[in-house]
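Section 5: illustrative case.
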């Protein structure tokens, strides 16, 4: 992945020639809004913010986002992917999570997280994960809390307003936008497959970022 991301005032600017991965250019990545945060900045996320726009929105340093996706991908690739749980309670997280799981072999959870899923062995749908990935540690707090209680590392996509308690590894990114969340999960899936030796750097994924995006109802009619 390229680390030379130009931070500019227009969110969709960037080079159309410079590739972040074999299927996405710098310009295309920035157009997803992956770096556009919220009006709130927590102490936990301050280190990942490059600047604040005139309208008050905090902008995430995309170089740090890409670097952390690579680090997370390298780490997750070392464990049994069938014991990796990826969870999102957000509607926009459903398709990214399901596509991520399909490509990597991870376990996708997109419905309400039932108490005891990780902590109660007597629960019929109990899971013993090795790694838990969530798309928002606030929205997905039950999964984060249970993973923490059993000592399982948590990787979380965190926006500028997130608190990162019980999160072991932060991927700083816009976790509210449909396109942004699709881009993060696509990049993470790709990184895991590359570091697992299941994909070469110049080999395209089966799905595009657009395929990872949760579509609005009117778009599917």
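Designed sequence:
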């Amino acid at each position: 992945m390229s680390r030379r991301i130009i931070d500019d005032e227009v969110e969709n600017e960037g080079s159309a020639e410079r590739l972040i991965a074999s299927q996405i250019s710098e310009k295309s990545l920035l157009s997803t809004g992956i770096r556009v945060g919220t009006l709130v900045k927590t102490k936990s996320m301050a280190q990942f913010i490059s600047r604040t726009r005139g309208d008050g929105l905090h902008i995430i340093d995309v170089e740090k986002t890409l670097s952390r996706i690579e680090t997370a991908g390298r780490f997750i690739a070392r464990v049994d992917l069938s014991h990796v749980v990826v969870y999102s309670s957000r509607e926009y997280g459903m398709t990214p999570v399901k596509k991520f799981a399909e490509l990597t072999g991870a376990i996708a959870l997109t419905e309400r997280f039932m108490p005891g899923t990780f902590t109660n062995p007597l629960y019929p749908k109990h899971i013993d994960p090795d790694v838990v990935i969530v798309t928002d540690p606030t929205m997905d707090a039950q999964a984060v809390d249970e993973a923490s209680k059993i000592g399982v590392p948590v990787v979380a996509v965190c926006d500028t307003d997130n608190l990162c308690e019980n999160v072991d590894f932060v991927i700083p990114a816009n976790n509210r936008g449909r396109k942004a969340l699709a881009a993060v999960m696509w990049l993470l899936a790709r990184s895991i497959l590359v570091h697992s030796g299941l994909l070469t750097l110049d080999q395209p994924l089966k799905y595009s970022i657009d395929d990872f995006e949760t579509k609005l109802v009117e778009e599917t009619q």
